[in-house]
Recover the amino acids of this structure.
């Protein structure tokens, strides 16, 4: 009986540790989206999503806050990020679906910050 109790302790501690790590990392998703945006999107779309970078101007990118972009559904934005559009590359092989969803939320957030 004593060996059964000591055998359960490491398993219980491992389960608690995994749960704590999952909960601990949850708030970092938004920071991760901002980092992903900076790494993958801002060179063309700009830090504020206005598309006012040299590359964004060259490609004629629209401001995320524009009515044309705002009326695009989240599902369509998800597809654009995943599959690419025009000269924008596809990210479905390099990003997880959750990361793409977070980028969509980040794009919406960036658009509302600059109004």
């Amino acid at each position: 009986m004593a060996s059964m109790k000591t055998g359960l302790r490491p398993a219980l501690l491992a389960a608690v540790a995994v749960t704590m790590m999952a909960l601990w990392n949850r708030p970092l998703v938004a920071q991760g989206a901002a980092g992903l945006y900076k790494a993958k999107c801002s060179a063309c779309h700009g830090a504020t999503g206005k598309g006012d970078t040299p590359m964004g101007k060259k490609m004629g990118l629209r401001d995320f806050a524009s009515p044309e972009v705002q009326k695009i559904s989240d599902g369509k934005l998800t597809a654009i990020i995943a599959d690419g559009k025009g000269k924008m590359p596809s990210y479905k092989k390099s990003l997880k679906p959750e990361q793409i969803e977070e980028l969509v939320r980040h794009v919406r957030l960036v658009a509302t910050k600059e109004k």
In short: Helices lie at 2-25, 28-40, 42-45, 54-59, 67-70, 74-83, 97-113. The radius of gyration is 20 Å.
